[in-house]
Design goal:
The relative contact order is 0.14. Helix 3 packs antiparallel against helix 4 and helix 4 packs antiparallel against helix 5. The protein is built from six helices and no strands. Helix content is 63%, strand content 0%. It is elongated, with a radius of gyration of 19 Å. It has one domain. It has 155 residues and is mostly helical.
Length: 155
């Protein structure tokens, strides 16, 4: 994750989620998400790498984790690790959006380097998934109407 500095040499490019670390994503052609994150972190931390290029590298690492998450989503749901992995992924994505908007992000748009718009769209999709899977199932109004139906006060 990225804090106040454009390049943080000690932070990984992706948030580790134990359930995802060993997954060899199809996108990565057999390289584990953990290993790809280590490669990205190393590249982003090299001397002379401009902040916008480091951000592009970190975003590529985040996309690898997001892809692995989607590939393993059903298993994560059944194991009970979906929520923490998804929350970590969303948090890391929010930090990357902040860093890219503050320090820039090298433009590419071709794999494995997505655009800031790609990042925002994927982050929005993950947030929607979080709300649907782990958010309230009924609104307060819906719960009130259901309660009225069950206690007989509503015809």
């Amino acid at each position: 994750m990225i804090a106040a500095e454009p390049i943080e040499k000690e932070r990984p490019a992706v948030v580790p989620c134990e359930a995802l670390e060993a997954i060899a994503s199809e996108m990565l052609k057999g390289v584990t998400v953990k290993r790809f994150g280590e490669i990205i972190s190393w590249a982003a931390a090299q001397p002379g790498v401009p902040p916008n290029a480091a951000n592009a590298l970190r975003v590529a690492g985040w996309f690898a984790e997001a892809t692995a998450f989607r590939e393993a989503e059903e298993r994560l749901l059944s194991e009970g690790t979906h929520r923490p992995c998804l929350a970590g992924l969303i948090g890391a994505g929010e930090n990357l959006v902040w860093a890219a908007e503050k320090f820039g992000m090298a433009a590419s748009g071709s794999p494995p380097f997505p655009t800031l718009e790609d990042l925002k769209a994927t982050l929005d999709s993950l947030q929607t998934t979080f709300r649907c899977e782990h958010g309230p199932k009924n609104s307060e109004k819906t719960n009130e109407l259901i309660g009225q139906l069950l206690d007989g006060s509503q015809p």
